Amino acid sequence: MTKTSSVVEQVKKQLFIGGSWRDAEGGATLEVDNPATGAELARVADGSVADGAAALAAATEAQAEWARSAPRDRSEILRAAYELIVERTDVFAELMTLEMGKPLAESRGEVAYGSEFFRWFAEEAVRVSGRYSVAPNGATRLMTMKQPVGPTLMITPWNFPLAMGTRKIGPAIAAGCTMVVKPAAETPLSMLYLAQVMEEVGLPAGVLNVITTSKSGEVMEPLIRDPRSRKLTFTGSTPVGRKLIEQSAQQVLRVSMELGGNAPFIVFDDADIDAAVNGAMLAKMRNIGEACTAANRFFVHADVAAEFSEKFAARMASLTVGDGMAEGVDVGPLINAKAIEKVTGLVADATGRGAQIVTGGGKREGAGFFFTPTVITGLPGDAAMAREEIFGPVAAIQTFTDESDVIRRANDTEFGLVGYFFTRDYARVLRVSEALEYGMVGVNQGVVSNPAAPFGGVKASGFGREGGFEGIEEYLETKYVGLAL
Description:
Number of domains: 2
CATH topology of the largest domain: Aldehyde Dehydrogenase, Chain A, domain 1
CATH class of the largest domain: Alpha Beta
Low-confidence stretches: none
Largest sheet: 7 strands, mixed
Radius of gyration: 23 Å
Strand content: 15-25%
């Protein structure tokens, strides 16, 4: 048995419902492929509408008892899960690389990042509190308490198959909510293995239920419209998020959405150019560019554009493209053929409008879904990639000369997830940070994600926050009690 097959064989391929592993209705399965080769990795259960209903029933049945559980018990479960994930870093990393494509080094980084949400919320579980005060007229007392929202539906994406799950599951467990998790059909193995870890550390039956399915809309819509569900959390595209919000309106669900992005990356004329290039590599190439936080539009001051573009292009050209499981690979494959088609189309549109390719520019021949790291200069403002998420290893550079103009251009999008800028002027740091219409801002750094910080956007990038002190609030309701004397 090869190393690859032995890792995949460690994962249970069934649905996890009510603390039991079971086949999908009728024994249906879906194929999970390796994007580096196009070959089948495994077949997992393909859940049906009835399977989804069973998962929600299990979560509902477990909710009352789980809500009454001691915060310290919930904390200890999360801490034990954190430690076991860290212990099994190599297993999780290899699974992620095989099913999603990112290089092993990046997968190990995701394990460290994703596990940290469990450690963080293990500490927050015992700090949930309300308040007690005297009414202004002195006649009564005011008391508030925090209680779990209730059964939660979680829909997670394929690009961070572990961390996007732990970022939701961690605070839900800490708050006392049960859940039904529907991972992406492209990358279910990491979530299924996480369910095994939670089972091992003693999470009670029914608290976590995992439904893998190729029929996401068909399976999840009835659950969203079911009055037993009390919250929906989704990470994914804005068009899908809008549809889910509409569906959630019927039950007036508590909703949190982490949706698309169109991140600006601004390099001012006083920036440390080498630091800006380092930041650009992180902001653009983390996760092969397949991240909602990826830098999508590069605005570089005209006085430093030539230096920045030359250094940035050289770094991009030096990256090694290949199977993420191979030694020395920097850039793995995109997730599927559709992703290749989208990125290719965006590059063709840009060059058709007069932009120039400095390096890269196309799909690598052979098996797998590989696209070479690409830098484009002279991007016109009406190009499609100036408006749409690229979700691939392509960086397109525009120039500017005026601060107020670049802020206007940076804000000229329906999205508002994250923005980045580089400068050595700390008056400008505050001025631009306040002016950018984004939920997160990176100053002189290319990565902002941190379990101790609130992650989320504004405008069409969604609402609600994950991580930080704010993250657990998404899973808690505030109850006010008026006390007569």
